[in-house]
Write a structure and sequence with these properties.
The complex is a heterodimer of chains A (154) and B (153). By secondary structure, chain A is mainly alpha-helical. Chain A has five helices and three strands. In chain A, strands 1-3-2 form a three-stranded antiparallel beta sheet. In chain A, helix 1 crosses helix 4 and helix 3 (78-91) packs across helix 4. The radius of gyration of chain B is 18 Å and the shape is elongated. The chains are: A mainly alpha (154), B mainly alpha (153). Chains A and B meet through helix 5, strand 2 and strand 3 of A and helix 1 of B.
């Protein structure tokens, strides 16, 4: 960091540093928000199950099953694959879940899952384990990490 | 993608060794239950099979149970040594988990044309025959790679 003749920081560099800090804080906030949404969805699913058990009521089930029956075969683009790899490099050495990578890349979780599968086939990413989701009983989320040597951008 | 088993077609030896490395304690050993839990299993027996095979191939070793006073290895009446439930990577295991091709080797392989690939495969097959630990690990790596690419993994 350069210092001018009067012993103060260059204003451009100061602004750049502040912006970098703000971006990092924004990323952390987004990951937290993503986790809260995932927890909320999980709670909604459990409440829906309770409702089904008590009243046999299951709104929206027809629309959902109809949508599910259409399975499209598609391949994730190389651009999304590279975005997922960059996101994992940004996160660093610690393992990350699909939703965390999705929050960083602004892609859907399904796209990220497929991109991570492609990276796993290329031996750039590995399955690092499973973690229990917060606020859920027994449900686990898969964690991915970079393979040794895949963190240098080579 | 939740694992239902630890078959070689689903989960490579390299990935397994790196999960073991993730769970090494301060003294360099990893509890098998920690590895099993990290992979989504509540019982250590799911990881025990893979540990046993990798030990046979020389990629991991199991900690001996020692007596508390003198630190001597304890033995079963059958003459076999007693073990704890902790494991660590051997030198071969470290090479499988963290090994990298040298830049020169990598670029030489990158220059190979389609016509040379069968020859390289033949060379690799000749050098990975037999029952040595490394030969078995190479054969397993091949099985894993091809199972995934053929969509059977």
């Amino acid at each position: 960091m350069s210092v001018n003749g009067r012993g103060t920081l260059d204003p451009i560099e100061r602004m750049t540093a502040e912006l970098r800090e703000t971006i990092a804080a924004e990323r952390v906030a987004r990951i937290d928000a993503e986790r809260l949404v995932a927890d909320s969805r999980e709670r909604e699913r459990r409440l829906q199950r309770a409702l089904t058990a008590l009243a046999g009521e299951r709104p929206g089930v027809r629309a959902k099953s109809a949508a599910k029956s259409k399975t499209y075969k598609w391949t994730v683009s190389e651009e999304r694959v590279q975005e997922a790899l960059t996101a994992l490099r940004t996160i660093g050495a610690q393992p990350a879940s699909v939703s965390e990578v999705s929050a960083l890349t602004h892609s859907s979780t399904e796209t990220v899952r497929r991109a991570l599968d492609v990276l796993r086939e290329r031996e750039l990413v590995r399955l690092a384990g499973h973690e229990k989701k917060r606020g859920s009983r027994g449900r686990r989320t898969t964690l991915y990490a970079l393979m040794p040597g895949a963190d240098d951008g080579a | 993608m939740a694992l239902e088993s630890l078959r070689i077609t689903d989960f490579s030896d390299r990935e397994f060794l790196l999960v073991v490395a993730d769970h090494l304690q301060d003294d360099g050993w990893a509890e098998s239950i920690d590895v099993a839990r990290a992979l989504g299993f509540e019982n250590r027996r799911f990881a025990a099979g893979r540990f046993a095979w990798l030990a046979r191939y020389g990629a991991v070793e199991r900690e001996h149970l020692r007596d508390e006073t003198r630190g001597n290895i304890r033995w079963h009446r059958s003459g076999k040594p007693m073990h704890t439930q902790r494991w660590r990577l051997t030198e071969l295991g470290q090479a499988v988990a963290y090994g990298k091709l040298r830049k020169g080797d990598e670029s030489a392989l990158g220059r190979l044309g389609d016509a040379q690939l069968p020859l390289v495969t033949r060379w690799l097959s000749e050098h990975s025959r037999g029952d040595t630990g490394m030969a078995k690990l190479v054969q397993r790596e091949w099985r894993y790679g091809h199972a995934r690419r053929n969509g059977t993994g």
